[in-house]
């Protein structure tokens, strides 16, 4: 209940307690409680509250008390800092206790009169002196006005002097806590302010400190430059900066840490950055990892400080990579090419990881340098990295080598691009489980693949590697006394995507690895790049179900031919193959088999057309005139394009169930070669004109197939003539023998044909790019409606970069083509707007 109170009498009793509290003297609990009640009574006094009187009296008391302390500190002489710190600690502690004693006053008067944060934020605030402060904040203001203002210069000079002594090592043995306490007082006196709470500390001490620091380190840097090499200079500067950082934490307020560091860096690094950069190139070339680490530590915190260092490292990596790549001249060029790039990448990746802490700037420099090395080409020559990388990916999955060579900048095919059995080695290893070695090599190849600009060329060129995959079989009844029994009819193709399907029909392990490979390619280039490859997985699964139904249907109707067949039907869009233009008559025994399957397929699907690619097919042939078993693998090596393809797989034999265990030799050959060989079941010798009449093969194709059989020593020329013509006569080699029982006889291309294929591939890439750019422009314009020329060019380049880097002229030609086709038009208002 409010009552009348005599303020003077109450304050006389209260002031004694306030003095004991502010001096941190002992105080009994009953006295504390009584005085707490007295303050409460003054705040609710009747008829008028005496809070403002209490505030004024307390302010006057604190001011008088601080002035008294100031006089005592001023006369302390050499113990000035110690006396100041001791009095501040006592006073600041007493101010906290006094604030608790005035709790009701603070809540009743001060808190309610404070302006809110919105007023402070938007500038609607009066002078801080006109506002009523909490008692603790009032005590801080009294200390500032009564102690710091008169002793400010003396205090700051004493602090700066001791910090300078510490830099010289002359302050050892002194208690640095005194300095911390003294510096904290400069911060604490205005900490209650909502805005510019550190202004007094910054104006009175920090500015002078930073000035002194800058002068010290400017002189120190000049001294070190005169006496040290670049390496020694960096070592000493790092030591100085480390010591200064520890000194900051012993003396300064946390707000000064960064400012002090920046000032030091300015004087010892930025002011002399050219001196540091001058030694950067030699450090990189001599692989001075320690010096590079020191330079990185010095420059990483400086704005744009690493730019020169990154540029030097990028130039060195690029120079090293190009030098090694240009040095590849002999041997397995693709293998050496990729291993060279991987070696360069690993060497500098380890350097960046261990020395530069995998800094993104240096990682990006490594990527740019590797891109330059991978995509290097001589002037006016296309880059050969896609060919090399595509070949090396194949080589990693095979047990054979590719007899060819490349010269950087100029593609030369010395003899031939021979057969490369895609993934044979991996499949054999995967039969017992996944091969980590093969997976690591594929992953490494993907790393190089990421650096290829023309990924669409990679996609095309890799298809030039000839690969056999699905095996289809027809079993035909041929006269046993004659040369051969046809056991298998194998369809084959040569594109990378078809090679993927080969592994799908083997072991699950190989399929898993192939899916991982495709996912890696998709991760680099996106789904569009590998969509057709994914379709192949679906085709294989559907073809397996289709053949099960076909065999069941053939068994029920009893109309199955003597030859059993397994066929894989693949989508036209997923398999970029084309039908063969070579005129050819299929042997009658095989023709019936194909007709039977087509009849089944047409009943099941309407409107679909099957194209049998005889030029990509091969057959297993058993030789019946030898006593020793042989297995010959004869095949043709060349890329093809088709629309639909059917791929039969090995069935159980019909005529001779145990033919795989027969002691008779087997020969695997192309369909054209098969048609030639079957003729010798009814004749002992034939001229090329007779063979041509029966098979309808033209002289060029016929000669190539006959030469392959002669090279395999299955047929022999009756007369030892150097060149075959239409009158040349060939016959069966009845004396055939060989140390091996299994043979693979390659049917190779000429060098001219290989060069033509490479040229056709690059032409195909150019055509694909035109369509891709036009489609990209149309998609962009449909989304943006109206676009300026430069903006359109930029968006097209960004959109195409994932597959290739288009030239400006190519984009302009695509724009003009779309304008002619009326897909887009120029704006009538501006000629550079579409």
TrEMBL record:
<dbReference type="InterPro" id="IPR036390">
    <property type="entry name" value="WH_DNA-bd_sf"/>
</dbReference>
<dbReference type="Pfam" id="PF10557">
    <property type="entry name" value="Cullin_Nedd8"/>
</dbReference>
<keyword id="KW-0832">Ubl conjugation</keyword>
<dbReference type="InterPro" id="IPR059120">
    <property type="entry name" value="Cullin-like_AB"/>
</dbReference>
<dbReference type="Pfam" id="PF26557">
    <property type="entry name" value="Cullin_AB"/>
</dbReference>
<dbReference type="InterPro" id="IPR001373">
    <property type="entry name" value="Cullin_N"/>
</dbReference>
<dbReference type="InterPro" id="IPR016158">
    <property type="entry name" value="Cullin_homology"/>
</dbReference>
<dbReference type="GO" id="GO:0006511">
    <property type="term" value="P:ubiquitin-dependent protein catabolic process"/>
</dbReference>
<dbReference type="Pfam" id="PF00888">
    <property type="entry name" value="Cullin"/>
</dbReference>
<dbReference type="InterPro" id="IPR045093">
    <property type="entry name" value="Cullin"/>
</dbReference>
<dbReference type="InterPro" id="IPR036388">
    <property type="entry name" value="WH-like_DNA-bd_sf"/>
</dbReference>
<feature type="domain" description="Cullin family profile">
    <location>
        <begin position="414"/>
        <end position="710"/>
    </location>
</feature>
<comment type="similarity">
    <text>Belongs to the cullin family.</text>
</comment>
<dbReference type="InterPro" id="IPR036317">
    <property type="entry name" value="Cullin_homology_sf"/>
</dbReference>
<dbReference type="InterPro" id="IPR016159">
    <property type="entry name" value="Cullin_repeat-like_dom_sf"/>
</dbReference>
<dbReference type="InterPro" id="IPR019559">
    <property type="entry name" value="Cullin_neddylation_domain"/>
</dbReference>
<keyword id="KW-1017">Isopeptide bond</keyword>
<protein>
    <recommendedName>
        <fullName>Cullin family profile domain-containing protein</fullName>
    </recommendedName>
</protein>
<dbReference type="GO" id="GO:0031625">
    <property type="term" value="F:ubiquitin protein ligase binding"/>
</dbReference>
